[in-house]
Amino acid sequence: MAGWVAAIADNVQNPIAGIGAALDVLERHLPAAALDDPVAREALAKIRTRLGTLSAYVTELASFADPAAPTAMRFELQSALIAAIGAAREHAQRGAHITFDVEPGLGAVHADGPALQTMVKALLINALEAVAPDREPVVRLAVSHDGQGLAVVIEDNGPGFAPEALDRAFEAFFTTKEAGTGLGLAVVKKHATAAGGTVELSRSPALGGALVILRLPGVPT
After folding, report:
1. Where are the beta strands (DSSP E) in the chain?
2. What is the residue range of 182's domain?
3. 49-88: per-residue pLDDT in tens?
4. Which CATH number do you get for residue 123?
5. Per the count of CB atoms within 10 A, which of 74, 133, 165, 210 is most buried?
6. Domain check: are 135 and 195 in the same one?
7. Dihedral over Cα of 184, 120, 202, 194: its sign
């Protein structure tokens, strides 16, 4: 199954890249007057947004289908978090107030670095996209070591998890968002379980939105 999904993902991503490249050419060669037209600008922006959404969906689908193979390694935690934050911002295309705090002494850790980045990125995207378009997202990310492993906490000022949605939150393709893929939390759960970790969902007492606690094996080095 994973092989089929990967092949389909490649076959879909290539046309997406081609459409994006053609759109770049079109924008470079259109007369300035055409690009100044509000209708044309809106149409081009919608095409780019839809392409980005489709590309992200295909990437998440491939990630969900790919067997999780935990790989423990030594990596710089702060650099990994900064990379995940940047990738989430780029994906969500939203201005946001994102703060992150790393417990002193957690410079380098021995854990599954790639999986951690994948999970943090997915959770940050969820947090950014959950906040209404007319509000600035506020997201807090904190990482500590509780003596048994890493505790990654992400909270936001969105609406939080609806009680009726909590039972299905990790179900693949289940989403309450208009343009959601329903794969973000499913991918996080898959990677966390494969690494011997857990994911907990609740409401943030500080920000009022969602609170996600990701617990993963890992030790400071």
Report:
1. 73-76, 97-102, 108-111, 138-145, 150-156, 198-203, 210-216, 219-220
2. 73-220
3. 888 778 877 777 777 767 667 788 899 999 999 999 998 8
4. 3.30.565.10
5. 210
6. yes
7. positive
